[in-house]
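re: ur question from the group chat, yeah i did fold both. here u go
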Amino acid sequence: MTPAEFIDQMLPGARACQRTAGIPASFTIAQAALETGWGSRVRGNNLFGIKADRSWKGPTVDVPTHEVVNGKRIAIVAKFRAYPNWAACVQDRAQFFLRNPRYARCFNEHTGAGWARAVAAAGYATDPNYADTLVSIMDGRRLQRLDVLPAEVAP
């Protein structure tokens, strides 16, 4: 799948998430692109690398991944949440951010770049360059233009 095809597939769900949860579409798409290599690595339909902690009661998938621990990148196998489809994953991620108090400050942000910095500051990823990488993806594909939602169609 090309990046353009990935963006096209992600856009409806990303915009729906922006409408209902206030998470910019540019951030949703950039994060999914980074976490999946533009859709080339999507195990269990998990687009965002959300791990399955003790609170997760749904299906899981074991995935080889990397973490940065004490400044060193190490290989691990981690348990991740699994979903029936991408839409369910996008919806669950919105709920993950909404329900987790450590991400409350993210909702003060209204741009994809602001969300990238706020999520990184809240400890979403162990990669110290996580926010910069997301912003680079947004800038490189001009994803910020997708944050302007089309007008709702009147009934």
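okk and heres the other one u asked abt
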Amino acid sequence: MASTSETGHAKNVDNFSSLIDGIASFGATYNPSNPSTILAALKAKKESARTSINAVNTASIQYANATNKRETAFVPFNSTITRGLNSLRASPSDDNTDAAVATIARKILNTRAPKGSTSKEAPAPAAGPAVKVKKVSTSQRSYDSQVDNFDRFVEALANIPEYKPNEPELKVEALKAYAAELRKVNDECNTTSYALDAARANRNAELYTTSTGLVDVALSAKAYVKSLFGATSAEFKRISSLEFRTVK
């Protein structure tokens, strides 16, 4: 379901279209001196505004698809780290090596080492879904950090001779492939996020720029009709109920 704000932007354009229909019915009598409110200019503004709305809708879908793909890719993320760390602990590697890798794992999974425990004794971080944060910018930084630290985690295991698991999905080659997949889907999220921000900025400029935005142009056109026919005229009443609001 579209958000209230996104619906509000579209409603402004829908009302603007109705305003144009009403103005068109006035014929040659409608002859404003303001070039931005002549009928041809109003029609052009409607098309550019509608295009900007559609661009946001397209960018929103692309961003949603990218985030869904990323969430799917991250499903085995925590368990992969946990299993890899436990596989290392089960190997002949020394405690200091295990502790260094465990530190990276805890940084990724945001867990703390129990006090007074050694690396061999410390339980692995609990498996579960990647942390989701409500704020988009904070969430994105969290994913960026997890991807970067997972690269470190895999590289650390790759440089430990004792790390030789028999499980195919835990082998270094498989972990590197998974790391590359995570970076790819995360980069796609970054790209589509920036594209969505740009589309929204363009949409906001089309609709809400002072004097030249759709809302101000619509209000100017309504004011002209009011001055042309009078506040109590049937012509003005035809368009007076059309609302135009700046949506944030």
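fwiw on the second one: DSSP finds eight helices and no strands in the chain. Confidence is low (pLDDT under 50) at residues 116-136. idk if thats what u expected
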